[in-house]
Amino acid sequence: MRDKTDASTRAAEIHAEMMALRQAILTEAAQSVTAGQTDDLAIANLGHYLALRRHDIRSLQRRLMALGLSSMGRLEGRVLPTIDAVLSALSCLAKTTEKTPAMPLEADFFAGEARLEAESLALFGATPAGRRTRIMVTLPSQAADGPDLTLDLARAGMDVARINCAHDGPEAWRAMTAFVRDAAAIVGRDIKVLMDIAGPKIRTGAVASVEKKARLQAGDRVRLVASGAPRVDERISFSAAVSLPEMVTRLSVGDRLRYDDGKLEAVVESLAEGEAVILIRRTKSGGTKLKPEKGINLPDTALGLSPLTAKDETDLVTVIECADLIGYSFVSRPEDIDLLDTVLARHGLQDRPLGLIAKIEQPLALTNLPELMARARRRGPFGVMIARGDLAAEIGFERLAEMQEEILWICEAASVPCIWATQVLEDMVKEGIPTRGEMTDAAMAARAECVMLNKGPAVVEAVSLLDRLMGRMNDHMFKKTPTLRALKSW
Predict the structure, then answer these.
(1) Which CATH number fits domain 115-200+305-482: 3.90.320.10, 3.20.20.60, 3.40.50.300, 3.30.450.40?
(2) 97: buried, middle or exposed (CB in 10 Å: 19+, 13-18, 0-12)?
(3) How many CA atoms lie within 13 A of 55 on its CB side?
(4) 174 neighbors 318 (Cβ within 8 angstroms)
(5) pTM of the shown model
(6) Which CATH superfamily is domain 204-297 in?
(7) In whole angstroms, what is the distance from residue 193 CA to residue 320 CA?
(8) What is the pLDDT of residues 229-272, one digit of tens each?
(9) CA-based angle 316:186:382, to the nearest 5?
């Protein structure tokens, strides 16, 4: 009798606490950035999720667990239904007469999952047999030379072919697209074409060094030049031109710089007319070679650049002609989506809207992610790519793991498909043998709706391996929820 009384008393206390939490969520969501889209159930749920996550409910979770109830740890796609189900169970335990929301129907409880699946179908096409996570592959330049590579990738399990518009040109892109369409017809599956416009990506141009094979080490200096040939001297042994000349003029002394997805970290030491000298603070063991066409990230520098360049506007003509999906680099604000749609309409895209993938690679995009999703969902099929290379270089490697989890949660709350990208099975793709760490990383990618592989000599084998791995993980996990199929190892 004592245990029953204690449980009833605890349930009554938690019931009152959760009713107050529910009301706070409703009040805060009504004032959030998502408040104007109450007709979109996914965005309404996102508002509830953001409001909930402003509260620390860790103590509440443990007390719910002790009563045998849901800890609410997997409610991303169903915030109010989960709270209402818990409240209904608490009211029974507490034998309270206080007004409690009705227990949600099972269909309503899992409606968020159904919305996410519908959005994934609209964006990526049919779900592959045996796995829910699609496989995207970046096509190399040689994919334009003939049909064999693309057909091999399709047979291995590729669901989306990615064309990086930072490389090659319209003739090659058209050839790649044609080979993808032919391969899809042969294997009997709908394989989508994603064309990724380059945006204002800052890269090294021509490079120079006093010694040809020299590698950058901590303590070395590099001269970055806005125009003209790179210039070295006795004091500064390395120099590089940059693809975006105005970058040099907007730097400040003390600004950090990361090179080639974080293989090197530096700080701006001095500035002069048309050039900046950076001091290397950290590099990988053995040093880093200064090469052309490598990315530069400036986490402290506000460049104020449009996400669409003149090259992008030209490339969009071919994108409209060939693609099913458009990858939008450096999108950071809701207005950036309006800008893209204006340009697409100007180039004649009207009756065949392209699916949109927003690449999250900058801190401002993280900050504005809820507004970006609320705006983009109104235009048609939409997804988010966690561009882990640039994102890590912008926010720091130590924060990447945390942020990729948060992006997955936010996307699930808004029923937005998510792509896990950058360096997935990187050693496997390049060398033919995966590392243990990257196999674990690839397995965790099963929580996303799509995982992206980069190009490399062993990419076909990597797709085949990933196809099998995703199939196995499909039996063990759905998003954050372990699915307890019978174990066969013991």
Answers:
(1) 3.20.20.60
(2) exposed
(3) 21
(4) yes
(5) 0.92
(6) PK beta-barrel domain-like (2.40.33.10)
(7) 11
(8) 999 998 899 999 999 888 898 999 999 999 998 889 999 999 99
(9) 35
